[in-house]
Prior knowledge:
10 strands
Amino acid sequence: MATKNDDLGATGQPGLTGDDRDRLRVAxxxxxxxxxxxxxxxxxxxxxxxxxxxAPAARERAEAVGMTSAADVTDTKGCDVVLVLVATGSQAKxxxxxxxxxxxxxxxxxxxxxxxIGPTDARAAQExxxxxxxxxxxxxxxxxxxxxxxxxxxxxxxxxxxxxDRLAGVFGILGEVLLVGGTVGDGQSMKLVNQLCSSxxxxxxxxxxxxxxxxxxxxxxxxxxxxxxSGASWFFDDRGPRMADGAPxxxxxxxxxxxxxxxxxxLAAEAGASVPMLETARRRYQAAEAMGLLDEDDSQIxxxxxxxx
Length: 309
């Protein structure tokens, strides 16, 4: 049973303009590190948002800022848009199967696969949802917690053009649409190309800062001097200060890239593609896992370079 708390929070973004025809009923399935701030932004912008999560604490947090909450995906009934933000492809398929089986008709609903789950599982979820009449858009997201909080996410989007057009009032509040094509699964593939870059760039940044330290250089000063220059990258500029800091807050868990590395490797093997840089980087993530670092901020992959470990 969905519940509602009317004490609205505020994130500072503009609300809807025009009349109630602009207002959508949006379900966000998964109120985790990315799902909650996305749902919060949509709610504060004037949309009618139901946050769906099996965890009571997540539902209480949603209600505290004015959202409706529910524990089960069957409470997506009556929603115009359903955003799916779960951890794995298996969970995404389970959500899709449960909705199609227990809800019956999903006619008139647009379901958006926001999680990074790979093209095979995305297409399997699409098949279940489409069999019940839903439109499905593939839109894995990048930008992390800061991007979700600030409305600066980027969605690698693939699916029917008319369905993507219907999502303008949602995507406009959350970030930027990067149109990949019309086939569900292609957004996932493009996101995995992005993750190959992200994963390797993070390791190179850590290696560079660790190298500077081994030379007896101040790592903080090394980050300052290299950032923005020819040897830098977005990851060096963003994660470098957190690597040099030594004990940053957890903004993006190391486990996320470790999980995505496996998806990239599997898809590359399926395509017969060579990814030697990924395989080299993966050894660092495996070392981080062995050290129990997967729940740490991903900048802490630099600790795998500490000779004391």
